[in-house]
Amino acid sequence: MRNIVAWMFNGLYVVALLTCAPWLAYRSWQRGLSLTPLMGRFRGDAPHRNAKAKSCVWLHAVSVGEVGALNTLILELQFRLPETQFVLSTTTASGFRVAQQRYPNLPVFYSPLDFSWSVRRALRHIRPDLIVFCELEIWPNWVLAAAQQGVRTAIVNGRLSQRSFRGYSRFQAIFSTIIGRFDVVACQTEADAARFRAIGATESAVSVTGSLKFDGAEIDRLNSKTESLRQLAEIGPEDTILLAGSTSAPEEQIVLASFAELAGSFPRLKLILVPRHPERFAEVAAWVQASGYPWVRRSQLDREKMAGWRVLLVDSLGELGGWWGVAQMAYVGGSMGPREGQNMIEPAAYGAAVCFGPRTKNFRDVVRQLLDAQAAEIVENRAELTDFVRRCLVDVTRRQQIGNRAQAVVLRNQGATQLTAELLVKQVAQELPTGRLSNGPPAPYIGRLGHRQRNWLRRG
Fold first, then answer.
1. Of 22, 143, 414, 441, which has the fewest Cβ atoms less than 10 A away?
2. Is 370 left (phi over 0), alpha (psi -120 to 50) or beta?
3. What is the pLDDT of residues 318-349, one digit of tens each?
4. Same structural domain for residues 203 and 231?
5. Which is nearest to 351 in space by CA: 415, 402, 412?
6. What's the start-to-end Cα distance of the chain, in Å?
7. CATH of the domain at 305
8. Could you check whether the bond before residue 278 is cis, i.e. omega within 30 degrees of 0?
9. Domain with 12 in it: what CATH number?
């Protein structure tokens, strides 16, 4: 049965690859990307396992968001499993670049395409004891090949939307065979857990651990990364920052129009734009230039002083988490178009007054908690965005109350890293040093998440 399923998917992938080949070539040329990584993924290129390591854990993150979500989990696992080798694969070019920056001591590589020969070759090189997929990565040949070689598999930060659930349910007979092979399915919510069980995950494998993204969110605005960016951009204490992050077209134009309505009345208001995709930097720069306000690119700040700007375009990758910390008001992008929202946990953790558009299915549970706590607002269009920002500028106390409530929501939801790590450690065949599991996470991790959470709980 496994071989039939494997070759069935091989055939489907070949047809899809041949059909999409002209489009892939065009998109790669348009973005200035090389096809070399794609060929490596087709072959199943992967790093070789360190012969001295007692065990090996292969972590997979699709793109930038998943790479960031794994941050605290990787730190925790490295602490608990000091003699284990960790390798990290990604799917996208932006995810690959950010992973290399964030984890310079880990082997980072592009994940194999889900052809049976590609994943088998990668598995032969890495020889992992455990493969950890972040959020929703159910690749049939990858999972089946791991099972054939006795490699345990896990999903962490698992989420399964109603739409994805309906899609998998249509092919229940096939996908239940695959999903039932996961040893751990650590879900963000009870609803996600119920859907995973319904499509074939075993009862013993499924747990609700919460979202890793809450644990990975920085709370301290005085952290070194944010402080260095604040100094680089010469943002003073009298400046008020509106930051629009992870934006997609036409959100930058909407935000620029709102800023234009307010800029004259609020001379210390500044706008920071952080588009989600680097290939759009030039397009957004043209819109900013047309606005007529003094502006600067993030890449220029490294070379020269650019005081007096009103609009800053962040044309870099992997810095958004730091930039959120300079903002008093935050618009979270991907929420006025088809992308169904981006991560609003990071600005909420800093205590910014957060708003986003109406399309946020990717973060449905987070949105519900923020709205229930009156810790964020939905803005349907430019007029509502302008109104939200104006009210935040006029009533500073109200703006701070919104931010404080948002930060409290984040703190209440922390703890997924510990629960998830405990599940994964049990899957790794390694005798742990005495006291590792009872001692908890390393000191920097406790410092960021532990004492602040206790302080907030004491405040009520």
1. 22
2. alpha
3. 899 999 999 999 999 999 988 888 999 999 99
4. no
5. 402
6. 56
7. 3.40.50.2000
8. no
9. 3.40.50.11720
**Parallel, antiparallel or unpaired: strands 240-247 and 269-275:** parallel
Residues 196, 237 within the same domain: no
Of 110, 100, 30, 65, the C-alpha closest to 280 is: 30
Cβ-Cβ contacts under 8 Å for 360 (sequence gap 6 or more): 335, 340, 341, 344, 367
What are the φ and ψ backbone dihedral angles of 88, each rounded to 5 degrees?
A: -130, 125
Give the pLDDT mean for 35-41: 82
Structural domain count, the chain: 2
Residue position matching structure tokens 């070019």: 93
CB neighbours of residue 377 within 10 Å: 18
For residues 362-387, average pLDDT: 96
Expressed as residue numbers, the domain containing 166 is 2-210
d(CA 298, CA 278): 13
Look-up: residue for tokens 């606005």?
291
User: In terms of domains, do 198 and 56 share one?
Assistant: yes
Q: Are 229 and 192 part of one and the same domain? A: no
